[in-house]
Each structure stands twice: as structure tokens, then as C-alpha cells.
User: Fold this.
Amino acid sequence: MTAPRMMALRAFLASDFIYRFRRDKVALVSFLVLLAFVLAGLLAPVLAPFDPYDPASIDIMNSEIPPVWTDGATDPQFLLGTDAQGRDMLSTILYGTRISLTIGIFAVMLQMVLGISIGLLSGYVGGRVDAFFMRLADIQLSLSTLMVAIVALAVFQAAFGTELYSDLAIFMLIMVIGIAEWPQYARTIRASVLAEKHKEYVDAARVIGLGPGRIMVRHVLPNTLSPLLVISTVQVANAIISEAALSFLGLGMPVTKPSLGSLINSGFEFIFSGSWWITLIPSVVLVVLILTINLLGDWLRDVLNPKLYKG
Amino acid sequence: MTGPRETLVGITDVVKHFAGGGNVLKREKRKVHAVNGVTLAIRQGESFCLVGESGCGKSTLARTVIGLNAPTAGTITYRGQRIDDLTPKAMAPYRRRMQMVFQNPYASLNPRMTVQTILEEPIRFHFPRLSRAEVKAKVEEVMLSVGNDPHWGSRYPHEFSGGQRQRISIARALMVDPEFVVADEPISALDVSIQAQVLNVMMDARDQRDLTYLFITHDLSVVEHFGSRVGVMYLGTVCELAETKALFANPRHPYTQILLAAIPRLDASGFRHTRLAGEVPTAMDLPSGCVFHPRCPHANARCKAEIPALKDQPDGTAIACHGIEEGRI
Assistant:
């Protein structure tokens, strides 16, 4: 089993895709930065000098200590300073990145599962099924994601109380952002399915006698997936932004388990009292994270679109 | 190859209409009359060729026979058993016996599957109890029989030329040991130098596996080389049905005569083909009576009013023409 896999790996490394990736400095740097973020998120419990979730490690006397390189720094163990509760900024940002990435990735996976199933069914079956799901998608798209999310989360918070909400916040955010954005995927997949389903290989599969489910999954679906790679990168960025926006509005992650968005929010009150680092550092992290994902997405779109060959 | 043989596939009064035309502003839905009442019997062991111009309904008829389209009216039978109204489950045993080779080898092979997967799929579906080794052996046997290298399995369709792909497509059809193969213009998308080679592969398969073909083409020289019987189609109807030799030696129907006269010949000295006036009428509104009457040099009042039936002639051919019936032509 290992020999063919090694061959496949070697073929992949020698492919045009990798060659163009290595030639493109923007893509290379973006990828490395993103990789660093993902690793930082994954290894947050190992890398972080403090555990921001452990109230015992927090001392309120350490609050609002500026970063080490500034004049007011009083304690060199807080590399990026501390926030209003005395939590180490570096540790909190590492954990926040972890939460933001988790929400982004899982929300996009949910969008994908929903969008691909609906789009595939809609495109292949056509007729009333198609009309129903596409009108549903139109309705969904006419409401902005944030609006849907704000209403859903606010109702949930009011109905079940803040206590339960803070326990389920990650799960709720993933559900809300995931469900709100499925039409992006469904429409893309449907359009590709419509183009693919009249090709002769689908007829050939029907002549063999394969059922519609099998034809959809085994024959049509693999031929419609390439645009998804591009959408997915952009959608991960969008999901992280949505989460940050919701957290900033106080509907996202609770202060006890901050994501990047709720960190920015919590520091916002102190920005005029001079504690700029509590808001600014997580903001920079968020911007860089989104920027690298979008740059990678742009690069992928160019590479996968043969009509945009740039020498 | 003589004597009356059993009818393998019976096509009776098959009609196929497609909803066409009309738009948001114009509600009126006009129908495309692709096939209008075709009756044919394809006998065991023969290579039945359907010829006709583009848009005459020959591909639609082929797709209806294989079950890709449901006929609007009429019946398809296989060994006397009606198959056009079967549920997919009841159809499964017939799917194994009837296979199809498509026109465009660049579209008929799934670009995301390896050749091995493409070839294994039909056999795994129809014979799920075969072991891996048996399936592999079968793939190898069929690949060799169509002149392909059995080691192509791990490669993808885009790595092959048109002729190679069409041979893979033929191999896929042969994987389940069918009795009847519908070939929808299998060589018209190929380079001329490859056409003969693919045609020979199909003829070898016929001889080795006792296949019956329904061969759709617009190339008359292929018909002469390949077919045992020919049906000539014009605007969704069959106008002449004859043994290949009889048809080429003595075309009877006026359309067949003009079609054969249009074959380019090397001894161009005496080349004189009959020019037909006008164009083929649209299948959206068919001419009344005989569909060929607006362009037929022998048409009279009866041809405009009455649709001619396909009538058996004493010499074994069948012709749909009032003129021949009345002895005018």
C-alpha cells in the first residue's frame, strides 16, 4: 500500500501546482504565515505561557500591563502585556486564534455538507426539487448572515440564559454561521452539476444501470469539486470575520473564553485610557489571518483557472 | 448468415416528442417531433445501420431503444418482452444485455476516474460476487480484445488519444458481455485514419462475441462496409429498409436515391448528383402527408395529404412511398 502512495506523493510534489506554488512568493509567504497560525492554534496549550481559562493563574493586580517593549512595562513575563482582567495577552491571543480557526473551519464544513448535498440534489433532480431549494437559497441570501445570526443568537441567549449560552457558544456559532451561508455552496455546485449532467459519461453510467444516487456521488460530484476549493478559502475567512463581528457585538464567545473578536471587544473600553494593546494586537492578528487566507484563495483561483494563465 | 432469424429488439410505432420553443413572453409550447412512428425489427446477429442527415432523429431513436429517453408513444421489446415501461430494478437484467458506445470519446469517459475504475464499474455492479482477481482478469481480457494495452488501467482518460479512448469506451460496453450494442455515431468524432481501426475493432467484437449492433451513422461508406441491413431515416420516419447490398445496388425510395447519388466517387468523370431544392423542414412543424414531399421530385397531391406506410416489397425491402406503391416511380 505504501509504494503507490509514495508515488502519488512524488507525482504531487512534481506537479505543475506545486511548481507554481513555489514560484509565487505571495502564495508561499501566505501559506507559511497561515501554517504558523494553524500550528499556533493547535499547539496553544503547549506554547502559551499561561492558561487564560484557569482563574487561579490570573491575578487582577497584573491588569493592563503594557507590552514589554514599551516604557510602562513592569513585568517581563507578559510579552504582549495583559488585559483588563490581568490575563497574559500572548496566551489569550493563542487560545483566541484557536477558537476563531475552529469556528471558521467547522462552520465551513457544515456549509459544505449542507450546500453540496442540496446543490447536487437540486441540480441533478431538477424540476420542483430544484425550484424549492433555489427559492429557499434566494430567501436565505436576501437576509444578511449577520442579521440572521444576531437574531438567532440573541433569542437563544434570552431563552436559555447567559450561563448555558457561554457553555454552548462555540457550538451555536458554528451552527448559525454554517447554516446561514449554505446557498453559496449550493448555487456553485448546482451550476456545475447542470453542466455535467448532460455529458455522455453520465449517460454511460445510466446505460450501465447505476441508480441516481450513485451517479450523483460517484460520477457527477467529483467533477464539480474544483471550484469549491476556492470558495472554501474565502468562506473560512468570512466565517472568522462573522464570528469576530458577532463576538464584538457581545453575541459571540463569552469573555471567559475569548475569541479574537471578543478580545478586540473587551479591549475597546480601555482604548481611550491608553491601553491600546488589548484591542490593537488581536486586531492585527485577525487582519493578518484573514489577509493570508484571502491571498491564498486568490492564488488558488488563478492557478485553477486555465484562462487566467499568467506566464 | 442466412435464413430468417429471431427478432432481438422490436421497435413498434415509437414516437418521441420533446417540449421545445416558447419563452416567458410566448406561452405557446411547440413540440419537436424527433421520432414519428418508427417500426423496426432488429434481428439476432445482424448489424443494423440507421442512416440519415443530422437532426433526422436517428440518435433519439437509439437513445430511446437503450432506455435513456422514455418514448412518448409506442413500445420497445427485447426478445418479445416489453422493456420501455420497466422499473429500474426490473430493467437491470436487460441493462446487462444491452450496452451503448457513444459518439464523443472525449465526453463519454469520466475524467476523474482511472481506466481501471471505468472498466470495473459495470462488472462490479452487475456481478457483485466476482472476486477481485476475476474482475481484473476480465478487464485484461476485454482490453486485449479491443487492442488496448491492459496496463493502461492506472491512467486517466485525458492521457489517451481519441481512438484509444473510443476503444476504452467499446471495452466498457463489452465488459458485461452484452448481446446487443447500440453505437451512436461511434466513429464520427474520430480522425479518418483512426475510423477504420475502430470500425475493425467493432467488427471483430461482433464476430467473436456474436453481437447484434444498432449502428447509427451518417457515413454511407461505413454502412456499406459494416451493415447487414440498413434503415434510411428522414425527419423522424423510416423511408426505406433493405439489405445493405440491395440498397446500394438498387435504391428505391426517392430520398435514398438522392442520398446515394451524393456519395463522392473517385471516378468523378460521371459524377452527377441530384440537387434537392430547399432545406430539411424543421421538426417543430412537420409537412403534412409524406414528410419528404416538399422536396421530392415525384410528389403529387396524395403525397401532400396522406402519410405513406412502410410497406414490404416482394424483394424483401420495405419502402414508405406512395409513388412506388402506385408504380409511378
The radius of gyration of chain B is 21 Å. Residues 7-326 of chain B form a domain with the Rossmann fold fold (CATH 3.40.50.300).
